[in-house]
Amino acid sequence: MSKPKHIPQNTLLYVDGVTKSFDGFKALNSLSLIMEPGEMRAIIGPNGAGKTTMMDVITGKLRPDEGIVMFEQDIDLTQHDEAEIANLGIGRKFQKPSVIENLTVFENLELALSGGRGVFQSLLHKLSNQSFGRIEEVLELIRLQDKRSWLAGSLSHGQKQWLEIGMLIMQEPRLLLIDEPAAGMTDEETALTAELFKQLAQDHSLVVVEHDMDFVKALDCPVTVLHEGSVLAQGTLEQVQQNQQVIEVYLGR
Amino acid sequence: MSRSIIVSFLMRDKVGNALLAVLLALAIIVPFCSLVFEPGDTFYLSSYWVTLLGKYLCYALLAVAVDLVWGYCGILSLGHGAFFALGGYAMGMYLMRQIGERGVYANPLLPDFMVFLNWTELPWYWQGFDMFGFAMLMVLLVPGALAFLFGFLAFRSRVTGVYLSIITQALTYALMLAFFRNDMGFGGNNGLTDFKDILGFNLQHPGTRAALFSLSALALAGGYLLCRFIVNSKLGRVLIAIRDSESRTRFIGYRVERFKLFVFVVSAMLAGVAGALYVPQVGIINPGEFAPLNSIESIVWVAVGGRGTLFGAIFGAWMVNFGKTWFTGAFPELWLFFLGGLFVVTTLWLPKGVVGLSAQLSKMRRSKAASVAVSEKSPVQAQAVEAEPQPQQASQVAPEPEQQAEPTPKNLDQGAANV
Q1: B25: which residues sit within 8 A by CB, 6+ positions away?
Q2: CATH number belonging to domain A13-251
């Protein structure tokens, strides 16, 4: 592992020269990305561009073959596993809604509540009034107050997506990685989700991977285009949409 | 909410509470019937029955242990019989040492089989087993330590699903082969038997048998309470989360392997206690108890009763074993076919076991009613619509008969039983 270079001040996430191959196929090819605190970033790119692999590397599910992944300037994420990285303050939402179907909405949020991750802590855990209030707040934010005692498995697709976002918020992460949140949502739900993200972006950093251009437009944030495992273009949505290379990549297929 | 969770929990586990009451009643009534009434009386229970029922209690405790790891945490252990047998051997070693000079060879120190093998001194691992307290500690520690070592390696390497099942099976098979060897020092093929007394009480005496029965009932009640405490704590919800979505649980920040290790060790210890109570009642422990079939049978008990409910495991263990007692008497050759058939039937048509049957039936009734009167909203549907602020979503979540989890508040009772 190469020694981290000088990392600019005030950097939340610093990804540099990350390569990850599967049987010779380079899913990530010298990928670099810098996130500042409080920034929201949309990541787009055709299928196979390496979006999910990038998230896997940042969250510790995969180890990169080479490259640097630093969080808050001095934490080397390649040295930690999923649970440690989650507790460092990086929350991840999967593309497929992944909530705990046999627990209620409330219990799902309680599970994600920050703090108390040990075995015996969990065994003797009591929900404090403060935590209870926090769960109530998030229930309201994700518009599931009425369904707190429903099993998560009985929610609609869009509601599951929200619940999962709610679980992310409960973790009080510094950085949220969100994989295709608008997939399978109705137009109305999509619009509400974009609103929710803008609200979140006030005190969190967000990386949103998305295919839905209307949704990206609604987010109104800088866009990074990935292609074949590396960054193809960056800028506002209008800028990247006019970029000749980007047009070729999207239309060439 | 936290108050209503407790209230709903008490209401929710009505069956469990009733079961505990039954166990306490049995712990009193069975010894009473056995000791107070004379043979010939209507209410007299012979030692044969006391022992048989006691055996069922031990099996039920093993089933509860299996349900804790399989029903709640999704760890399908096909080797729990090994922990049961190890607990049994620890008890058996104590009972062997109690025989003393009353053995065939009248050796004050060495059990008969060691004299027979021309051994001159007691192996180091037999030291201390003359003390009841030490032996009881080993009943917990030996299965616990094996489960810890095995679980530590398996869960750290993220061995899951069918691969984990296969290596647990291999574990119990390997132990069986090892215990069959005479030079292991556990009596080889014959195992440990010819026990005389426990803590000075004659094992053949009806009073001792009745006491062992009552202890088994209390151990089962205690094991049930312990597991209920675990599954109703936040830890229990983490276990369900691991079962339903292991990677999600990791990304929330829980160290899945530690939680798995914890329940696996607790479960192994419970299985060990069950084995330790089983051995003095049946009077023998031999390597056959390690047979993979035994472990698989305990999985069948839990599946038939209904996994993830704890009490379902107890019912399952009782039903299948009553069936076995009857079947092996009436049609001895057919028992294994029947057992296999039972597992197939349960898997195909009773995914939630016998305790899930009533919920399944009422669901069928509901969906029938719903298909008969499509235009007319059933009360359940109306409720679902009321709870829904946005009409267009309400149509999305309206109950469909073939849907696995119904989005109706009714469904909660059913699902909550898992919690």
Answers
A1: none
A2: 3.40.50.300
